[in-house]
Structures are given as C-alpha cells and as structure tokens.
Amino acid sequence: MSDIHTMASTPNAAAVRVAESLLRQWIGLDVGTIGQAALERAVNACMRASGERNADAFADRLQHDVAERDRLVEEIVVAESWFFRDPPVFDVVRRFALQRTKVPGAPPLRILCVPAAGGEEPYSVAMSLLDAGLAEGRFIVDAVDVSRVALARAVVARYVANAFRAAAPDFRDRWFRMEGPTAVLQDEVRRTVTFAWGNILDDGFAAGRPPYDVIFCRNLLIYLTPDARARVERQIDRLLTSDGVLVLGAAEPAIMRGAWMPASEHSAFALRRAPAAAREPPTGGGAAALTRRAAPPSRPPAASPVSARRHDRGGRPDATTVDAVVRQAETLANAGRRSEALLLCQQHERQSGPAAGLFFLMGMIHQSTGDDRLAETYLQKTLSLDADHEDALLALSLLALRRGDPAAAEQYRQAAARVYSRKGLS
Q1: Within a domain: residue 296?
Q2: What Cα–Cα distance (Å) separates residue 354 from each residue in 320, 323, 379?
Q3: Total count of domains within the chain
Q4: Last residue of some domain: 54, 76, 98?
Q5: Residue 94's pLDDT is what?
Q6: Predicted pLDDT at 287
Q7: Which of 156, 190, 312, 329 has the most CB atoms around its CB within 10 Å?
Q8: Long-range contacts: 423-426, Cβ < 8 Å, 24+?
Q9: What is the DSSP string of 228-250?
Q10: Taking the model in full, what pTM does it have?
C-alpha cells in the first residue's frame, strides 16, 4: 500500500498526458480550467483504486479499459448542485410552460437537463411545474449525465441539508418527507423525471427524440475546449425547438455563439433565439446583453431605505444592503432604464463605499450599451474587491475577444472555470 501511495504521489507524466488526451476527446474537457494539479490528483486516485503500480501500464489501461475511463471521469466531474439554483430562471420556465400548455390539445412540454448532476435541477423543474398546476403527463423531464455515480444518487432522490441551501424551505415541506437528517423526495415528483446516461458530445446524443421546448445546460460550456463548446452548441441548436428556451449558467451567455437574446426581463440566463431580423452582430455584449435601448433618464429613483449608509463591523458596505441595491438596479436595467440603474449604483457607492456587486452590475450595463472601455474598468474594479468573481472573469474574457486579444480571453476564461471548479459550482 505504501508503494502504491508513493508511486501515485508523483504520477508518471505519460499517464497524465494520456488522461488529459482522453478527457479532452471523451468529455471535451479543457484541463486548463481545472488546473494540472487537479488532473494529477485524479490520476493518483484512479491508480490507487485500480491497484496498478506501474504508471505506464495504467496509461495503457486508460486507453483501452472503459471502466478505467469512467472512473477517471468520475474523479474529474463536479456533480454537486442544489435545488432551485437561480430562482428567477424557474419563474421564467414556469411562465413559459403555462403559456405553452394552455392551448387545447397542446402536447406535453418537453424539458432536457444536461448535465443532470444529482437530480437537484431536474427535480426543481418538476416541482416548479407541479406547483404551477401542471399535472403529471403535461410535461416530460429528461435528465442526462456522463457520471453514473451522480445518476445513481439522482434516482435514489435522498438529500441532505446542503442541497437546500439556496431556496426557501417551503417546497421541502411540500415535496419531501424527512427520515432523520435526510429529505426523501415524493414519488409524485420522481415519476415526472427520467434519468439516463449519455454524453452530449456524441453525434448520436438524443437521436430520434422529438425536440425539446426547454433545455437546461448550466455550467458545462466553461469547462470545455473551443471545439467541444462548438459541438455542444450544435447539439443544442438541433435539440431545441425554434421558439424554445435555453437556460445557461450565469457565466455562460457571454460565450454562447449565435443569435440569442434574453427570454425574459426576469433572468438574463434564460435565452431564446433572436428573431431573424435581429440576427446581426450586437453592438453591446454577448447573449446576456439587454436588447432594448436605454430609456432616457426621467428622474433619479426615489430614495429608498436600502440606500442608507450602512457598514458591517469591519467597515465594509453591509452585504444585505448591497444585494438589495443590486436587485433594485437590475430591475431598472431589465426594464430598459439603464441610466437610472447606473445612477442608483453610483449613489450607493458614494454613500456606502465600493462593493463588488455594484461594480459588476455597472460593468455589465456598460457592456450591454457597447461601452467596452467603461465595462472593462468596472469589471477590473470588481476583481480588485473579489478576485474570485467568476462572472466578471467571463465578461472580461468576452471583452478581450472583442478587442482582438484571444490569449487574454483564454486566460480569463480558464481562471473563471477554475473558480467554478474550486467552489463546486456545477
């Protein structure tokens, strides 16, 4: 055992190269997004699990043994999620579903979640639609993942407190029964979701299935090589109905190619295809950019209690106050009142001091209006306060691409993906 540990602590370079090549070919992974150390740890773990002492022999096994390949994938993929991540997205999908299914004789709404992780996202979709009054049979949720371990967890549908960390607890009371510290999902929800193993990079992925009205594909693109991202985007284009909704991770609309626009003013991460007349290069940001011109400022927003000067004990702006101001400014920006949104952020900064959330929103507003210089200034300010702000890193990547600096763009993208991996965001 000690010999294996010693061997695994310094993995053979050939084994690491084979692992990197395999992961790039099989799941499209850009290893730079997780870091070389993470890859070496995964190879170490696989060697220990296999009992193989010879690294060259293990490298050969990786190339020819499907079980070893799957074990390596399990060591690499981040399969952690939680229920109702980004609640506004589920509001968008619920409204879309009710509109789509109210037509007499309309077929069941079809939804795809890929990757499925431990089932938290597809089950969140199902609970949201059931709560909206859609009966079983009025919608279908297909959930697909490349991790067999994650799928096994999803089918069992037993969750601990961490899976409920970002949502109001009332849905847990409605749809789960407690067995000690474990929450067990009701069968009524489980019956609406079908889990299956699959790799979205396969040409035959979901072949023969009717197109989907909604596709969730969150926080996958940021981990992929450019070629793999393009392949996933082609799959999405093939599988999504022409007027369907695509839900991405917070950092991903900026890197999504093609003519996409926000599906709703309530969430910039839910996208729809732009009308044919609008399919021309945007003057502002990527798919998440707001599509309406900013309305001229009418008058400054009314004073609000959230704009009062408040700090925590360390002298920093109170986080609760900043979040409230950001939400208020986002509402203004999504309504096309960008000048008012910027003014609100600037007022709060003068009163309470700098905050990453304020700077990031100001950067995104400037990016959406085409002012890349100011956008980059505020995004850099965001990083000066929060070096691990993954959304700011992705936005800077897009700006670097637009100014013709692909090397800087790739550095920002890889830094963002490393942050996502380190935080366990899937």
Answers
A1: no
A2: 14, 13, 13
A3: 3
A4: 76
A5: 94
A6: 41
A7: 329
A8: 423/388, 423/390, 424/78, 424/80, 425/78, 425/80, 425/219, 425/249, 425/390, 426/77, 426/78, 426/79, 426/80, 426/81, 426/115, 426/117, 426/218, 426/219
A9: HHHHHHHHHHHHEEEEEEEE--T
A10: 0.71
Enclosing domain of residue 371: 305-423
Confidence of residue 309 (pLDDT cuts 50, 70, 90): very low
Does residue 293 sit within a domain?
Answer: no
User: What one-character DSSP code corresponds to residue 190?
Assistant: H
* Average pLDDT for the chain: 81
Asked if residue 192 lies in contact with residue 140, where contact means CB atoms within 8 angstroms, the answer is: yes
CATH of the domain at 335: 1.25.40.10
Taking only the tens place, the pLDDT of each residue in 15-44 is 888 899 999 999 999 988 888 888 888 888
Please tell me whether residues 72 and 178 are part of one structural domain. Answer: no
Only one residue has tokens 């540990």, namely 5
CATH value at residue 173: 3.40.50.150
Mean pLDDT of 296-317: 36
Residue-wise over 261-292: b if at least 16 C-beta within 10 A, else e? bbbbbbbbbbbbbbeeeeeeebebbbbbbbee
CB atoms near residue 184 (< 10 Å): 15
